[in-house]
Amino acid sequence: MRIFYCGDVVARSGRDVVLKNLEKIRSEYKADVILVNVENAAHGFGVTPGICRDFFDKGADVLVTGNHFLNQRDIVPYLNDCKMIIRPANIPAENVGRGYTVFELPDGRSILVIQVLGRLFMEAVDCPVQAIENILKNYTLGKNVSAVFVDIHAEATSEKLSLGYYLDGRVSAVAGTHTHVPTADGRILPKKTAYITDVGMCGNYDSVLGFDTAAPINRLCRHYIGDRLMPAAGNGTLYGILVETDDTTGLAQSIRQVVLD
């Protein structure tokens, strides 16, 4: 299975570059499954149902969110209604939406997609390991699912690495998101799980994490946090990864970073 994951989409520049390239990802990269992180797709914070439908209409299969998943109020009913968008699995179970989903390909193969939030330097959430274990009780890689893809949306690189090694050999891939800075450590771990600390963002890289530089510089120089962060205008760049798995075992064969304009 060829799994393509687009990193955090930030505002219009991120949306535009991903929407423009989804058909190319399917045809030229021969992606069987396309995952998109829409965490910051709506003006930098959260996502709306309309934006989600735009991604699905252009070819995305599963949408992943993050700690800003509730920033847009109109997304609340959509998270319950749409089975192909997930929010973090390690938030209180009473919340809206679901922390994982299974996407079935037309040829009968299936992929389990899970997201968890990190706990270091983040808001208080439940244990990400326990949340994943509760899900994996019902799914076994290479048996009732063809692939398992785990997104860890976290600040700390050490926490992402620890989860990667913890799940090595039990899932197809562990991919980090949230910091919006692509890392150069994409690799196959010893037990054949693909890993990268951060996929990077889809947005305008002439910015501070996708936002216009004025407010972040003001915060740096004056410690003034009253300025509202504004998404950077201009052309975006898509950062993503392509993971190929063995259809018998579900384990990873390769991981490749992809950059598209």
Protein described:
By secondary structure, the protein is of the alpha/beta class. Helices cover 24% and strands 25% of the residues. It has helices at residues 11-27, 49-58, 75-81, 128-136, 157-167, 214-222, and strands at 2-6, 8-9, 33-37, 62-64, 85-86, 100-104, 110-117, 147-153, 173-177, 187-188, 194-196, 201-202, 238-245, 252-260. A 6-stranded mixed beta sheet has the order 5-4-3-1-13-14. Strands 6-7-8-9-11-10 form a 6-stranded mixed beta sheet, covered by helices on one side. Strand 3 (33-37), helix 2 (49-58) and strand 4 (62-64) form a beta-alpha-beta unit. The mean pLDDT is 96.
Short description:
The chain is an alpha/beta fold and 261 residues long. 24% of the residues lie in helices and 25% in strands.
What's the layout of helices and strands?
Blueprint: E1 2-6, E2 8-9, H1 11-27, E3 33-37, H2 49-58, E4 62-64, H3 75-81, E5 85-86, E6 100-104, E7 110-117, H4 128-136, E8 147-153, H5 157-167, E9 173-177, E10 187-188, E11 194-196, E12 201-202, H6 214-222, E13 238-245, E14 252-260
Parallel strand pairs: 1-3, 2-12, 3-4, 4-5, 7-8, 8-9, 9-11
Antiparallel strand pairs: 1-13, 6-7, 10-11, 13-14
Helix pairs in contact: 1-2
What fraction, in percent, of the residue positions are helical? Answer: 10-25%
Which sheet architecture does the biggest sheet show? Answer: 6 strands, mixed
What is the mean pLDDT? 96
Determine the strand fraction and express it as a percent band.
25-35%
As an assembly, this protein is single chain
Based on secondary structure, the structural category is alpha/beta
H/E topology pattern: EEHEHEHEEEHEHEEEEHEE
Number of helices: 6
Q: Cα distance, first to last residue?
A: 25 Å
User: Quick one: how many beta strands?
Assistant: 14
Regions with little confidence, pLDDT below 50 for 5+ residues: none
Q: What radius of gyration results from the CA coordinates?
A: 17 Å
Identify the strand order in the major beta sheet: 5-4-3-1-13-14
Could you say which overall geometry the principal axes of the C-alpha atoms support? globular
